């Protein structure tokens, strides 16, 4: 039998467990990862000369982080590992990757995409001021470099990460000026039955909230963001918002961490021509996948948050399961019992994730209320007014059409940060359901590609 | 226009909402003809919307320059004509050749001499004059031919702007209307969409680009149309400093790259090897090896671009004919039937000139523009 070329993209919890499963079956997969070190985002490893302990870095998740890193370290020599390597396009069962300016071609028979997630963002007036970070970005600064994004930080948005990162900042001694959550408390109660699918995780979340409140951090629920205030020169100076009683309040700060849960990174799967389905629960387009991670394209599998946002622990299970599905499809018999167990585990995480989406919903209604001068697309400085203009004057209701006419999502990030919010602005202006707006098609390169790519070393 | 229960009737039906069809619709409505413009998806979505955006006359066959001049005049008044800005910049066009092909300098000189008589003034540069004027060029560049009245525009905006102007002037514009049957019934053409709508007119203009032959075949006429997809890239924005669009004259497809900087600052790169395209998929993907060869060639043309990063690549479905010239004019067989398609990757600049010429031909039965090179039956057969 000719050696089957299995390539995993992403060395986070999904990619690592996936690689382990393949190695255990006697294969030698290639693992390609953008990061300098393995671990992905949630279990991001600090630079090699940093010496913080696991407990300090990962808190309640220290043992899991240690297990994941240990798992990956044990794979060295048994896999081909390409760190700091960006897969920028896919064609004809071949990955086109860039390691710095070196061009690398990686052919594959089986591709398992564990590409993770990034912050899901809703614009607010002033979010283009220096000092505004995503929640994930704020956490990376802390985890990787032991830096806070500011001296007085406001955490605004919703979701589990909002409380987690705020608590991590507070623990590290940063001044948390306020936690501003757009979701009202009542939603958590109604989501409780689903959240109880993972009681221990729920309890960790409750503890985070309590820790912040006990530390005297002002925590507001059910708020409506008004503006991140400041100037182009000074950057962020404060946040104004309406509290749940409709009263306008302000908090002084020099940095804001913003985020509304996560969105999957789907560009590679898109370039591999995998099909998408609209998920009404989270109001976003997700990759089509069977319960084991088979995408709509034969030989392409999906695992981790890149497939569906269910968190790091579910990512481990889905990485294992996708590897087993791939092995099964390659003719390696797999234990039906283990696979069924992993599916049950994932089903519980799916239910929990549905609970989180219900408790901390994506604030679609904010898009309707954005003032005309709010910048929606920061890369291309496209305002809500301009986006509404192309909808009303040029009938640009489809997302890619609106992009062609207004430049929304046309910049460096290719709509990864503004695309979903732009779709909501368009849907509201056009009076159509957001799924009718569609989604921005992924176009290569997945991230900016140097013009000097592939140039022979001088 | 009158509408019966099931049929839309007008003076002219145009099938294909690219820049040819959209501009023809505008100029026909200006000539007081009622027009129905039918587009299978969205206006200007394929070749017209995904091309490089060159508004370049130089380098075209001399015989095509009167048409190109006519188009240039439309581009110059596009803001007034369309009531919106399609980012037309008359910022010059530079065509260069490499040291390894010195014979092309003679071609530049001969072309400039001929072009001068047809209203296109070109200035030739070489040596220090070339480098002082265009400091971003690489050391391999030998000479350049510069047209100061050429430039570029935004393809994403142009065809839709023509269609909107046509609509304001009274044209019926139907998007998402895929035509499956075209036939002549008595004096009228009957055009039927996939979903059963019928459009009728005594004149039919087919401007359906790479899809045209599905329609012409129904009249027993064919042209050897093939599909390809351009290789396009755009960099992140940097301060605006390169005014002209710049392209390489070369017989080698891979070497033939070009670039332009837009006021926003991004540099758009096109050319080099084209990829496959499929009419049934309605999409053409950029082949990654073509991106790599394009970037290699662009480094040769303008090493200054090496500092930048590509943020997006794209392609589209273009219709090509074997001699790289379009089919344009009246059908040799069917009266009232007109064609303008197969612009072979170089239709954007002449687009509005094609629209104006087709409108004139349909309205008056004649045009001063020579359509002889673009005859449908020049390929034999059909």
Describe the structure.
The complex is a heterodimer of chains A (458) and B (382). Chain A has 458 residues and is of the alpha/beta class. Chain A contains 16 helices and 23 strands. Chain A has three domains: 207 residues, FAD/NAD(P)-binding domain; 140 residues, 3-Layer(bba) Sandwich (FAD/NAD(P)-binding domain); 73 residues, Orthogonal Bundle (Arc Repressor Mutant, subunit A), CATH 1.10.10. Helix content of chain A is 36%, strand content 22%. Chain B has two domains: 171 residues, FAD/NAD(P)-binding domain (3-Layer(bba) Sandwich); 141 residues, D-Amino Acid Oxidase, Chain A, domain 2 (2-Layer Sandwich), CATH 3.30.9. Helix content of chain B is 26%, strand content 26%. In chain B, strands 7-8-6-17-18-19-16-21 form an eight-stranded mixed beta sheet, with helices on both faces. The model of chain B has no long low-confidence stretch (mean pLDDT 96). The interface between A and B is medium-sized, with 29 and 30 residues.
Write the layout of secondary structure elements.
The complex is a heterodimer of chains A (about 450) and B (about 375).
Chain A: E1 6-9, H1 13-24, E2 30-32, H2 54-58, H3 62-73, E3 80-82, E4 86-91, E5 94-99, E6 102-107, E7 110-113, E8 117-119, E9 132-134, H4 135-145, E10 152-158, H5 160-171, E11 175-181, H6 185-190, H7 192-195, H8 199-214, E12 219-221, E13 224-231, E14 235-242, E15 248-252, E16 255-260, E17 262-264, H9 267-271, E18 276-279, E19 284-287, E20 300-302, H10 312-329, H11 336-359, H12 364-369, E21 375-377, E22 382-383, H13 384-394, H14 399-406, H15 419-430, H16 434-437, E23 449-450
Parallel strand pairs in A: 1-2, 1-7, 2-3, 7-20, 9-16, 10-11, 10-16, 11-12
Antiparallel strand pairs in A: 4-5, 5-6, 8-17, 13-14, 14-15, 18-19, 21-22
Helix pairs in contact in A: 1-10, 4-5, 5-8, 10-11, 13-15
Chain B: E1 2-3, E2 7-9, E3 12-15, H1 19-30, E4 35-38, H2 47-50, E5 54-55, H3 65-76, H4 78-82, E6 93-98, H5 103-116, E7 123-126, H6 127-133, E8 141-147, E9 151-152, H7 155-168, E10 172-174, E11 179-185, E12 188-193, E13 198-201, E14 203-206, H8 212-216, E15 226-229, E16 232-235, E17 245-248, E18 257-261, E19 267-271, E20 275-276, H9 288-301, E21 309-314, E22 318-320, E23 327-330, E24 337-341, H10 351-364
């Amino acid at each position: 039998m000719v050696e089957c070329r299995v390539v995993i993209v992403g060395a986070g919890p999904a990619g690592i467990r996936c690689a382990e499963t393949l190695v255990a079956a006697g294969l030698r997969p290639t693992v390609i990862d953008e990061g300098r070190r393995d671990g992905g985002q949630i279990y991001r490893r600090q630079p090699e000369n940093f010496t913080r302990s696991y407990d300090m870095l990962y808190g309640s998740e220290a043992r899991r982080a240690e297990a994941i890193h240990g798992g990956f370290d044990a794979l060295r020599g048994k896999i081909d590992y390409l760190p700091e390597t960006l897969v920028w396009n896919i064609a004809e069962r071949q990955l086109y990757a860039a390691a710095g300016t070196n061009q690398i071609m990686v052919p594959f028979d089986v591709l398992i995409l564990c590409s993770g997630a990034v912050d899901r963002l809703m614009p607010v007036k002033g979010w283009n001021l220096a000092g505004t970070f995503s929640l994930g970005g704020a956490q990376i600064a802390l985890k990787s470099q032991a830096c806070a994004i500011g001296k007085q930080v406001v955490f605004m948005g919703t979701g589990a990460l909002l409380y987690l990162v705020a608590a991590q900042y507070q623990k590290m001694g940063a001044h948390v000026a306020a936690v501003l959550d757009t979701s009202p408390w009542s939603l958590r109660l109604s989501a409780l039955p689903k959240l109880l699918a993972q009681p221990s995780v729920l309890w960790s979340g409750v503890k985070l909230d309590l820790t912040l409140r006990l530390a005297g951090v002002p925590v507001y629920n059910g708020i409506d963001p008004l503006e991140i205030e400041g100037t182009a020169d000074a950057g962020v100076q404060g946040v104004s918002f309406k509290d749940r009683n409709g009263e306008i309040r302000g908090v002084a700060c020099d940095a804001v961490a913003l985020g509304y849960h996560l969105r999957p990174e789907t560009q590679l799967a898109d370039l591999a021509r995998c099909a998408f389905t609209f998920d009404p629960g989270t109001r976003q387009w997700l990759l089509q996948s069977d319960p084991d991670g088979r995408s709509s394209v034969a030989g392409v599998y999906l695992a981790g948050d890149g497939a569906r946002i269910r968190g790091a622990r579910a990512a481990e299970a889905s990485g294992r399961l996708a590897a087993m599905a791939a092995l099964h499809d390659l003719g390696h018999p797999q234990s039906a019992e283990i696979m069924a167990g992993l599916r049950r585990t994932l089903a519980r995480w799916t239910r929990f994730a549905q609970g989180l989406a219900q408790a901390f919903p994506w604030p679609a209604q904010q898009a309707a209320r954005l003032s005309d001068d709010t910048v929606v697309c920061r890369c291309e400085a496209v305002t809500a007014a301009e986006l509404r203009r192309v909808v009303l004057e040029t009938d640009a209701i489809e997302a890619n059409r609106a992009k062609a006419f207004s430049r929304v999502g046309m910049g460096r990030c290719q709509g990864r940060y503004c695309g979903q919010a732009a779709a909501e602005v368009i849907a509201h202006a056009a009076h159509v359901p957001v799924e009718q707006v569609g989604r921005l098609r992924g176009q290569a390169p997945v991230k900016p590609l140097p013009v000097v790519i592939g140039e022979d070393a001088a | 226009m009158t509408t019966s229960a099931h049929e839309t009737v007008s003076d002219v039906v145009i099938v294909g909402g690219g820049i040819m069809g959209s501009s023809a619709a505008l100029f026909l409505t200006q000539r007081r003809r009622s027009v129905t413009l039918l587009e299978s998806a969205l206006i200007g979505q394929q070749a017209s919307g995904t091309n490089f955006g060159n508004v370049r006359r130089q380098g075209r066959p001399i015989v095509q320059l009167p048409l190109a001049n006519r188009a240039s005049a439309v581009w110059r008044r596009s803001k007034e004509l369309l009531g919106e800005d399609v980012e037309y910049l008359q910022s010059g066009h530079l065509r260069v050749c490499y040291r390894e092909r010195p014979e092309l300098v003679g071609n530049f000189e001969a072309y400039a001499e001929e072009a001068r008589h047809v209203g296109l003034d070109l200035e030739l540069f070489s040596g220090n004059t070339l480098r002082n004027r265009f400091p971003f060029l690489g050391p391999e560049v030998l000479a350049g031919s510069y047209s100061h009245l050429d430039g570029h525009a935004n393809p994403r905006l142009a065809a839709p702007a023509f269609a909107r102007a046509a609509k304001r002037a009274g044209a019926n514009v139907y998007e998402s209307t895929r035509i499956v049957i075209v036939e002549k019934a008595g004096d009228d053409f009957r055009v039927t969409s996939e979903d059963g709508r019928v459009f009728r007119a005594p004149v039919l203009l087919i401007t359906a680009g790479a899809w045209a032959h599905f329609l012409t075949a129904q009249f027993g006429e064919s042209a050897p149309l093939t599909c390809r997809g351009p290789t396009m890239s755009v960099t992140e924005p940097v301060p605006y400093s390169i005014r002209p669009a710049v392209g390489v004259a070369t017989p080698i497809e891979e070497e033939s790259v070009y670039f332009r900087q837009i006021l926003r600052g991004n540099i758009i790169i096109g050319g080099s090897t084209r990829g496959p395209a499929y009419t049934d998929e309605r999409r053409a993907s950029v082949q990654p090896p073509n991106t790599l060869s394009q970037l290699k060639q662009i480094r040769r043309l303008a090493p200054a671009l090496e500092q930048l990063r590509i943020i997006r690549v794209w392609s589209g479905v273009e219709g090509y004919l074997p001699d790289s010239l379009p089919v344009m004019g009246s059908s040799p067989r069917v009266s009232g039937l007109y064609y303008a398609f197969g612009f072979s990757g170089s239709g954007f600049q002449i687009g509005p000139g094609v629209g104006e010429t087709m409108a004139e031909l349909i309205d008056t039965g004649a045009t001063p523009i020579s359509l002889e090179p673009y005859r449908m039956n020049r390929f034999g057969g059909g």
